[in-house]
Amino acid sequence: MLAGQPDDVERWAAAAERGLAANGFAHSSAMEPWTALLRALLCRHGVDQMRADAQTAVAGLAPGSPWSATALLLEGVADILAGEADRADPVLAHAAEVATHIGALPAASAALAQRALVAIARHDWIQAETLSDRGLEIARAGQLNDYEMSPLLHAVAARAALHRGDVPRAQDHLTRADRLRSRLTAALPHRAVQTLLELTRAHLALTDVAGARALLREARYILQQRPSLGALPDQAAELQSKLDTLGATTTGAATLTSAELRLLPLLSTHLTFREMGERLSLSQHTVKCQALSVYRKLGVSSRGQAIQRVQQTGLPGR
Fold first, then answer.
1. Does pLDDT of 88 surpass 70?
2. CA 297, CA 301: separation in Å to the nearest integer?
3. Distance CA 263, CA 258 (A)
4. At what angle do helices 232-244 and 189-205 cross, to 10 degrees?
5. The model scores a pTM over 0.85
6. Is 244 exposed, middle or buried (0-12, 13-18, 19+ CB in 10 A)?
7. Which residues, 6 or more positions from 238, have their beta carbon under 8 angstroms from its beta carbon?
8. Under a CB-based contact definition with an 8 Å cutoff, are residues 81 and 190 in contact?
9. What does the pLDDT look like over 244-259, one tens digit per residue?
10. For residue 139, what are the CA distances in angstroms to 94, 105, 142, 150, 166?
11. How far, CA to CA in Å, does 115 sit from each of 119, 226, 262?
12. 204 phi/psi in degrees, rounded to 5
């Protein structure tokens, strides 16, 4: 699964299921938590079944088992996929706590990445950055920066950096995620599609339309194989609609300066340039010059068109 080899995953999973059935172990109390954990990871039969399987694994695995944190993580992921972020967050917080306590650092960093996703959905960007930074600290401590579970963490960290206007840091995280992109396959479909969609959003925020389209194609290909992934197909369709409104070579936010990115959220308000300058401790003339530079880089000619472009692409000012 972690290496992204779906054919081998299916072969070994089928062998395990046949062996368990042949030996009468499939429904034994000793084996059920492990088979449930396997089913939750594969997510073959939809989000509700994934959650039920994860809960079975949580209840059956020993509290000190290194896999108990993974089972909690999968329960929280199932809640997110079902669109129940309020239910997911405390489960994921518990997963991160258990994982940290037992030394399951990959599960801890993954749970924090999922919690950052919940924070982003709530538009709580400060919390999202705090959580992603904690996840990155754990990844560095456990030398997990190139671990197969890390691309999602780097994707959410990139989105948080973009919202703050730190384009170089965001691009660094996107580069790190891209190094492991080949392992984002149907072998672990929910993780792969979540990551690819977050990377798509980040590239859209940089108005890298070609890159966003390529990432979304990969996500949709996996969804064709595993369509029962809760809210993810609808999210992919929404991103496709956004991309369909953009030209193939839209000029990009990748060239916006940090100061210009800080100005974006204020453009969608009713504030005048003078009032924006007061909030940013800048002169009215400086704000006007920055705004004109933003219009030029986004390929628009007015404040209204700039706001529309921000809404289309998911730039930080959205």
1. yes
2. 10
3. 9
4. 30
5. no
6. exposed
7. none
8. yes
9. 887 655 555 556 676 7
10. 18, 7, 5, 8, 21
11. 6, 24, 25
12. -65, -40
For the chain, state the CA radius of gyration: 21
pLDDT reported for residue 142: 78
Q: What is the pLDDT of residues 176-201, one digit of tens each?
A: 888 888 889 999 999 999 999 999 99
d(CA 206, CA 240): 16
Alpha-carbon distance of 153 to 114, in angstroms, equals 8
Mean pLDDT calculated for residue range 251-270: 73
Cβ burial of 200 (10 Å; 0-12, 13-18, 19+) is buried
Q: 24, 9, 3, 42: which is closest to 190 by C-alpha?
A: 42
57/60 Cα distance (integer angstroms): 5
Two structure tokens written together for 266 = 């204020």
CB atoms within 10 A of CB 217: 12
Report the alpha-carbon distance of residue 212 to residue 245 in Å, rounded: 13
Q: Which domains does the chain have, with CATH numbers?
A: 6-181 (1.25.40.10), 253-313 (1.10.10.10)
Distance of alpha carbon 195 from alpha carbon 77, whole angstroms = 13
Torsion of CA 176, 179, 183, 185, to 10 degrees: 80
Give how far the C-alpha of residue 90 lies from the chain's centroid of Cα atoms, to the nearest Å: 18
The answer to whether residues 265 and 316 touch, using CB atoms and an 8 Å cutoff, is: yes
CA distance 157 to 117: 10
pLDDT in tens, 25-80: 655 667 888 889 999 999 989 999 999 999 999 999 987 888 999 999 999 999 99
